[in-house]
Specification:
This protein is of the alpha+beta class. The protein folds into two domains: 73 residues, no CATH class; 91 residues, 2-Layer Sandwich (D-Amino Acid Oxidase, Chain A, domain 2). The chain is built from four helices and eight strands. It is elongated. Bound molecules: flavin-adenine dinucleotide (FAD). The site of flavin-adenine dinucleotide (FAD) has 17 residues, from β6.
Length: 173
């Protein structure tokens, strides 16, 4: 291909390592930041999003209504070594404690495990969170290649801007 955009999320480091000529010392270290969600049994208590202050390394456990109108809380942040999407039901107590800081009347036992996601992070525990990395030929030396690393939250919100930046970089190349 004349142009290649590598945007494989959690596999960014692995895929770059498989591209012939990609300098290994230009592949940033990657970390897995798992986040789980819990769902509220019963009527959603609020109409609007609630974002408490961020937790170290992530935006923090927030409240939203999903498209079906049900209340969802999450995600937390746990550093993991493997891709494991299990949601531990025992975490409900930890979530209850956190949620009661902004919703003291959360009923006891009303949370059920929902789903999990894993963020492709470029920083480890306690390290400052860097920006997304859009690496082009000036970085790795391969013409026509843009390699994206660390497209974690808010990568979805930023996707149009990332797409524009990638397109501009490739057109200039
Ligand atoms: C718990 C959690 C909460 C989040 N919350 C938010 C939020 O509130 N707001 C927000 O903006 N963002 C949020 N994000 C981040 C958002 O989900 C990501 O930034 C976004 O999904 C990244 O998109 P992407 O296309 O770069 O990667 P992905 O969505 O991960 O897509 C990568 C694709 O590449 C494929 N792939 C991998 N390897 C290969 C290969 N070798 N060959 C071919 N295909 C391959 C994968 O199968 C996958 O389909 C959250 C993420 C998590 C985990």
């Amino acid at each position: 291909a004349r142009l290649l955009v590598a945007a494989p999320g959690l596999a960014a480091q692995e895929v770059a390592g498989r591209i012939e000529g990609y300098p290994a010392d230009h592949i940033p270290a990657g970390h897995f930041g798992k986040g789980v969600y819990f769902r509220l049994t019963g009527k959603a208590p609020f109409e609007r999003l609630i974002y408490p202050p961020p937790i170290p390394g992530a935006l923090g456990t927030h409240y939203r209504k999903d498209l079906g109108g049900q209340a969802v809380f999450g995600p937390d942040l746990v550093w993991v070594e493997t891709e494991d999407y299990w949601v531990d039901p025992d975490k409900a107590a930890e979530f209850e404690g956190y949620i009661r800081r902004f919703w003291p009347s959360l009923p006891q036992g009303a949370l059920t495990p929902d789903y999990a996601g894993i963020r492709p992070k470029l920083h480890g525990p306690g390290e400052p969170q860097p920006d997304f990395q859009l690496r082009g030929p000036e970085d790795h030396g391969i013409a026509g290649l843009m390699a994206l690393f660390g497209i974690e939250s808010p990568g979805l919100t930023s996707s149009l801007a990332i797409g524009e930046a990638v397109a501009e970089a490739l057109v200039d190349d």
